[in-house]
Amino acid sequence: MKQLDETQLHDLADYLRIGLRRYEPLQEELLDHLACMIEEKMASGMDFKTAKSEALEYFTKDEVQRTEGKTLYFVHTKPVLMKIFSLLGITIALGIIVFPDKEQEPKPEFAATVEVVEPELIAPNFLEFALPTDPPDIAPLNGNHHITSGYGMRVHPVFNKKMLHRGMDFKAPLGTPILATADGTIEFADDEPNYGLKIVIQHDGQYKSLYAHMSEIKVAVGEKVTKGTVIGLVGNSGKSTAPHLHYEIIKDGKAVNPAEYLPKS
Amino acid sequence: MYICPMYSRELVKGTLQTVILRLLRERGRMYGYEMTQYVKEVSAGKYQLTEGSLYPTLHKLEKQGLLGTEKEQIGGRTRKYYRLTEKGKVAAGSRIDEFKDFLQTMQRILDLKPDVK
Fold first, then answer.
1. What whole-number percentage of chain A has pLDDT above 70?
2. Which of A105, A200, B24, B95 is found 20 to 30 A from B111 (Cα to Cα)?
3. The complex's ipTM?
4. Least CB-CB distance to A37: which of B33, B56, B78?
5. Rounded to a whole number, what is the distance in Å from the CA of A111 to chain B's nearest CA?
6. Are strands A177-179 and A152-155 parallel, antiparallel or unpaired?
7. How many of the other CB atoms lie within 10 Å of CB of B4?
8. Minimal C-alpha gap between A50 and chain B (Å)
9. CA dist., res. A234 & res. A115, Å (int)
10. d(C-alpha A173, C-alpha A185), whole Å
């Protein structure tokens, strides 16, 4: 079966890029699903345009937004709500137990009742669900902030033509430890022609961070890391002219200026 | 005789998790589209998995620790495969047993004739 080309895929990706909050992991899945649907229609003789409009009748914008909403609820909203309720419950329970003097006489009995009921229901959830993570806000190299190339248009040192530099370059000696700049899950940890040894961390629905040209990767795909965990070592792999860390922050699928996410120093 | 193109949303909604867990137990790893096509074929079009119900459920099961995922680059896009975790394999077994029991109970409640399969 013939596969869709890059232009056609971009066309579909643009269609899916709607809705107030874009949960990129789901966007990727829906793109694959939509592409498979269209490829199958095209295999039976339809051209791309017809196949696409037939598939989109089934995959309306409302449907996409609803799917995203439901998924975000299960993955993000519900755990956060559970966490808020458990914190509230524990705060109330502790408040009543710790400060019985401030209340009237009947309260101590009430406190005993609350103490028994609340923690049982809520404690397991409290431990299980994590708070939503903040965007990256520390530097990926400890103390070493020697920035050799910032975000924006520049002449690439290897390809020798004007290109958008999607991140920041930090010059550092070979083997300098690289830190995860926020909590998250390892999405990619492998070798690649341009970026060399590269790691991508998925932080929450909006943010990802990318670390490239490493000499060593210390984590595996799927692993959960916390802010400050050493994830690899500075190297010179891929299309690089000297040992350095190439660092990107990707918000809602687009590379943004990492300088805005570093501590003010 | 009941002739229906597709089952109602309520029926599908109530059985979706069991179907997904069973599917992955037998077939190993699958991606979303593959699941919808397989179920459509086996059910002769009667049991339709829509993206609107499938993907939220897959993500929910993943969050609960019953499914694990892996990604692959296919033709310029990323494909996400789902597979059962150890916890998921146990859940698949218990859900299927529960459903078999449920079928027998429904036969009694609805007073279905013994030869209804």
1. 83
2. B95
3. 0.86
4. B33
5. 33
6. unpaired
7. 7
8. 20
9. 51
10. 27
